[in-house]
């Protein structure tokens, strides 16, 4: 997880905070800030760390429950597949098995994410969720390939579907099981800020509707069109491919450190409202598991001392951690904002 003590990731370089207050008020405020700087946000860090651990615990619970529910659904469907020979139902069953198995890499990722950062993994192990996402994408792709293959084989070698009533019932069971899991995953995923869990919930919801498509295959077979079953199987394969596309895009965004631009705008707004911040420079956010980290640049008055500027940087970090959802740590770099025209980063120009 990325809930390390914010004092370890630092507050950047302090360079000042200036207002037109009287000297006595400035000194009083400075003493207050210095006292806070000496003990930087211990309450915030502890709260955020506790929230992160609780988030992982909730994630583990939802994965265990959803795994059991989907495995039970898929096992019931597999029995009916063996009796009926329905290719549409086979495709849905394979997808439900794959969806149940996605809980395993996510569970491993949540477990790893609770480990403390080390000198090698200095940001912790939260990115294990992204690796789990890759495994999930591969499982979805495998289920699509197998379902499509079976549907094509059945089109080339048609055969009657037996126990149509049971096939229809299995489709309904698949829908109910997936919808229950989808609601649970999405609810908890949004509570703990896990995009992977929310995406997996949306995946389960899509699976529920593909289960209903099995009813179409059973209905077509009942009306004397046995070819309807493999055709619906191909349709289910296409639906799985759409889910695969969305899941792959989600994981790609996480691997590339993409965030919702509205989060950047919110961070900029928060920083602009901090007393002593005269301007906001670059704002960089990244997800590490289901927690956010930030690296930001602010401008402060060039007339302030190092201690005063550091106090402004501390206040900016403090406000960010409080007001930006899922942010567990921030590095704040303060630059002097003077009118002397001096480029304080000139020595770095050739390195940027």
UniProtKB/TrEMBL annotation:
- List residues of the Cation efflux protein cytoplasmic domain: 262-336
Disordered: annotated segments: 1-24
Show the PANTHER family listed in the entry: MITOCHONDRIAL METAL TRANSPORTER 1-RELATED (PTHR43840)
The cellular location(s) given in this protein's UniProt record come to: Membrane
InterPro entries for the chain: Cation_efflux, Cation_efflux_CTD, Cation_efflux_CTD_sf, Cation_efflux_TM, Cation_efflux_TMD_sf, CDF_Transporter
Q: What is its main location?
A: membrane
Mode of membrane association: Multi-pass membrane protein
- What is this protein's name? Cation diffusion facilitator family transporter
Domain (Cation efflux protein transmembrane): give its ranges.
64-256
The cross-references to Pfam families, in alphabetical order and at most eight, read: Cation_efflux, ZT_dimer
Question: To which protein family does this belong?
Answer: Belongs to the cation diffusion facilitator (CDF) transporter (TC 2.A.4) family.
Q: Which SUPFAM superfamilies is this protein grouped with? A: Cation efflux protein cytoplasmic domain-like, Cation efflux protein transmembrane domain-like
Tell me which species this is from: Nonomuraea mangrovi
Compositional bias of kind Basic residues: 12-24
**Organism's domain of life?**
Bacteria
């Amino acid at each position: 997880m990325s809930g390390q003590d914010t004092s370890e990731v630092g507050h950047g370089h302090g360079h000042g905070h200036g207002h037109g207050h009287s000297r006595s008020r400035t000194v009083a405020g400075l003493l207050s800030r210095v006292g806070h700087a000496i003990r930087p946000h211990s309450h915030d860090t502890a709260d955020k760390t506790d929230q992160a651990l609780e988030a992982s615990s909730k994630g583990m619970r939802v994965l265990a429950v959803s795994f059991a529910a989907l495995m039970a659904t898929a096992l019931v469907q597999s029995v009916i597949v063996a009796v009926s020979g329905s290719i549409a139902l086979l495709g849905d069953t394979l997808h439900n098995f794959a969806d149940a198995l996605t809980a395993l890499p996510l569970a491993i990722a949540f477990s790893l994410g609770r480990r403390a950062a080390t000198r090698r993994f200095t940001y912790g192990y939260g990115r294990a969720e992204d690796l789990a996402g890759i495994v999930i994408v591969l499982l979805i792709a495998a289920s699509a390939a197998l379902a499509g293959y079976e549907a094509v084989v059945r089109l080339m070698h048609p055969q009657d579907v037996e126990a149509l009533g049971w096939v229809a019932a299995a489709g309904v069971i698949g829908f109910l099981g997936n919808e229950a899991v989808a609601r649970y995953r999405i609810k908890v995923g949004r509570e703990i800020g896990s995009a992977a869990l929310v995406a997996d919930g949306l995946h389960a919801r899509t699976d529920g509707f593909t289960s209903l498509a099995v009813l179409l295959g059973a209905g077509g077979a009942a009306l004397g069109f046995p070819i309807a079953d493999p055709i619906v199987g191909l349709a289910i394969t296409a639906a799985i491919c759409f889910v695969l596309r969305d899941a792959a895009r989600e994981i790609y965004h996480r691997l590339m450190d993409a965030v919702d631009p509205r989060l950047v705008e919110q961070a900029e707004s928060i920083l602009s409202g901090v007393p002593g911040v005269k301007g906001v420079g670059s704002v960089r956010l990244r997800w590490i598991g289901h927690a956010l980290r930030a690296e930001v640049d602010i401008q402060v008055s060039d007339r302030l001392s190092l201690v005063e500027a550091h106090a402004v940087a501390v206040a900016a970090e403090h406000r960010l951690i409080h007001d930006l959802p899922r942010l567990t740590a921030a590095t704040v770099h303060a630059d002097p904002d003077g009118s002397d025209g001096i480029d304080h980063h000139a020595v770095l120009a050739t390195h940027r």
